[in-house]
Write a structure and sequence with these properties.
The structure holds 2 protein chains of 2 kinds.
Chain A (H helix, E strand, L loop, with lengths): L7 H8 L5 E4 L8 H9 L5 E4 L2 E2 L1 H8 L3 E6 L1 E2 L8 H9 L6 E4 L2 H13 L3 E4 L6 H4 L5 E4 L6 E6 L5 E9 L5 E2 L7 H7 L2 E9 L2 H6 L4 E3 L6 E4 L17 H10 L3 H13 L4 H8 L1 H12 L10
Parallel strand pairs in A: 1-2, 1-10, 2-4, 3-5, 4-6, 10-12, 12-14
Antiparallel strand pairs in A: 7-9, 8-9, 10-11, 11-13
Chain B lengths: L8 H12 L5 E4 L4 H10 L6 E4 L3 E2 L21 E2 L2 H9 L5 E5 L2 E2 L5 E2 L2 E2 L11 E2 L6 H7 L2 E5 L25 H5 L6 E5 L3 E5 L6 E6 L5 H7 L5 E8 L5 H10 L16 H14 L5
Parallel strand pairs in B: 1-2, 1-5, 5-10, 10-11, 13-14
Antiparallel strand pairs in B: 3-4, 6-7, 8-9, 11-12, 12-13
Helix pairs in contact in B: 1-2, 2-7
The chains are: A alpha/beta, B alpha/beta.
């Protein structure tokens, strides 16, 4: 078997075709920013982002003009500011209008669950009575055949490729997650291909010491990329904090189309890859984001 | 216990909602000011309350406010780090006794819109104003045992007809939630920066429950589009205590959540030093 270990450039080139559907792991924490940067850099087009909640990673894809459609529950920035790029696309068609297929976070969660179980849909007791159903014909309301009352059915999600960033993985793609898991265990099983990015590649013998931490076994995974600080300016539990001042700069640039286009020129097209991105952010600054986390919150190491 | 003299309206809202959290509550926390209400409650009168965050964090004992519902502190010193599908399933199963969410537009039955604002000639897919969407708010409104809504009271936000029903309150009135098949009991309170609203047991209609210090019922009625009923025994809201305000300012030293003036940080260095000092100010009570 040939090695799954590759570079981000190669993984995006190989697994992201124009028009395909893409899922991301994480939610704010562990959202793979470097993947959004690379997809924009490679000028991918007409993608569908199949997700639950995404913040800055979705804003970058929207601003970069890579998306055609969102299947989602929430797209925004959050406490740092509004989703200016999402608003501009939806309200003004800049850079172009987007199709939206909306659910709630639980609805999206159970779409990935259905995908992971190999079942066509899942019934839930959310969404009932809301306009989410009115505007999304893919959600069906049925009466429980066993008599408990109305249920909302959400269709299985099977994204073409999922990019999931984790704290650590081995070269085969056994992935260990620290902190919240989001829907990543199910996204990995629902997707046709999984590209795993990780803070560190560690030996399989280390994985075996804490098998309970393995959220994604290697048989789900097509490619592995070691990519420290993949999520900057977002956070990774046990590795680094959110860089709020940097996020504010993106939000400030996003206030106008001209502003974000020039930000993208500088921070995506103006550099070649993640290594250059890290240098441009500043290695000392990144080290301090890491220090802030490590002083307070670390994965316990098991010594042998 | 001493009441604080100097506090912002956001701090007043967070303190008021914190008081609604009981020691035996399992609380599903939404994004924004609810993040702070949960922290204040567990740091004061409700140390056993379990805070649940959408990303999968359960029971965190954090040393700073999470900046999103899935920021690292959402599992800092937690009792469990699980999945999004798991915590929402736990809620649907009935384990979550209280949910706290925000909203952009609300009607008399507590139905909320956080999806789109429409104007003439605009539609759902080409809206006048696009908002974030449900996130987990619909799920919390559907299935949490009881629900508290936090939003600002401004003209045009408390309306007869919301543009899009994202998260259900009492839908069309008495019996509608049950008919729709929802498990949760529906909204109990709306906390604003001027007053709190309750919901009538029989009619399920929102009424003026209590006024924050300095506000009058007449000014509230002018900001609400329907003929607002007023609680005959209208009381004044209890102000935040010095302890509550102190906790908020320690856990959110830059006012990211509560929008204090100090949130105007200029540099990364300033950010780093301020948050670091915030962490050091908090004693971890495991």
């Amino acid at each position: 078997m040939s090695s799954k270990v590759t570079t981000l450039e190669e993984a995006v080139r190989r697994f992201v075709a124009d028009g395909c559907s893409v899922a991301y792991g994480g939610i704010a924490g562990r959202e793979p920013m470097a993947v959004s940067y690379e997809i924009v850099r490679q000028r991918k087009k007409n993608l569908t982002l199949v997700t639950d909640t995404k913040i800055d990673t979705a804003e970058i894809l929207i601003a970069g003009g890579c998306l055609k459609k969102l299947e989602c529950a929430y797209i925004w920035i959050g406490v740092v500011g509004s989703g200016h790029n999402y608003r501009r696309a939806m309200e003004e068609g800049i850079p172009h209008y987007l199709e939206t297929e909306e659910y709630s976070n639980y609805g999206c969660s159970m779409r990935f669950m259905a995908g992971a179980l190999g079942l066509p849909y899942m019934p839930i007791k959310s969404l009932l009575g809301s306009d989410i159903i009115t505007y999304n014909p893919r959600i069906k309301v049925v009466d429980d055949p066993y008599g408990s009352g109305p249920l909302a059915l959400v269709p299985a999600a099977h994204p073409d490729v999922a990019f999931i960033h984790v704290q650590r993985a081995d070269e085969d793609g056994n992935a260990q997650i620290w902190g919240m898991l989001g829907n990543d265990d199910n996204i990995a099983r629902a997707a046709s291909h999984v590209v795993l990015t990780c803070e560190e590649i560690i030996p399989t013998s280390e994985i075996r010491k804490i098998p309970n931490m393995t959220a994604i076994p290697s048989y789900c995974v097509s490619a592995v990329v070691e990519l420290p600080f993949c999520c900057h300016p977002l956070s990774v539990s046990g590795y680094y904090w959110m860089d709020i001042p940097f996020r504010r700069e993106i939000v400030a640039a996003s206030l106008t189309r001209v502003g974000i286009v020039s930000w993208i020129d500088e921070w995506i097209f103006g550099i070649r890859n993640h290594e250059e991105y890290k240098s441009k952010v500043g290695l000392e600054r990144l080290a301090r984001c890491r220090q802030m986390e490590l002083e307070n919150y670390q994965i316990p190491r098991i010594e042998t | 216990m001493t009441y604080a003299k100097d506090f912002t309206t956001s701090e007043l809202m967070a303190a008021g909602v914190a008081r609604q959290i009981r020691n035996d509550d399992v609380v599903f926390i939404g994004v924004g000011i609810p993040l702070m209400a949960g922290i204040v409650a567990v740091a004061t009168h409700a140390p056993k309350a379990i805070l649940v965050y959408e990303g999968g964090g359960i029971g965190a004992r954090t040393r700073r406010v999470p900046w999103t519902i899935s920021d690292n502190p959402a599992t800092d010193n937690a009792i469990a780090a699980s999945q999004m599908w798991r915590v929402f399933s736990d809620q649907q199963r009935g384990f979550v006794t209280l949910g706290i969410i925000g909203g952009a537009e609300i009607d008399r039955f507590g139905n909320l819109n956080t999806t789109v604002i429409l104007g003439s000639g605009t539609t759902y897919s080409r809206p006048k104003v696009r908002l974030p969407g449900s996130g987990g708010a619909n799920d919390i409104a559907c299935s949490a045992g009881r629900l508290i809504i936090m939003m600002r009271l401004q003209k045009g936000k408390f309306v007869n007809r919301i543009h899009y029903l994202t998260s259900p309150g009492y839908l069309t009135g008495p019996g509608a939630r049950e008919k729709a098949g929802l498990c949760g009991k529906g909204p109990k309170m709306v906390m604003t920066e001027k007053c709190t609203f309750g919901f009538d047991e029989k009619t399920k209609e929102m009424y003026l429950q209590a006024l924050h210090p300095g506000f009058k019922a007449e000014e509230i009625k002018k900001l609400v589009d329907w003929d607002l009923k007023v609680n005959p025994g209208l009381k004044e809201t209890e102000p935040p205590t010095e302890e509550q305000i102190g906790i908020m300012r320690n856990f959110d030293p830059m006012g990211f959540i509560l929008g204090a003036k100090s949130s105007k940080i200029e540099t990364f260095d300033e950010f780093y030093q301020k948050v670091r000092r915030g962490y050091q100010a908090i004693k971890l009570n495991r």
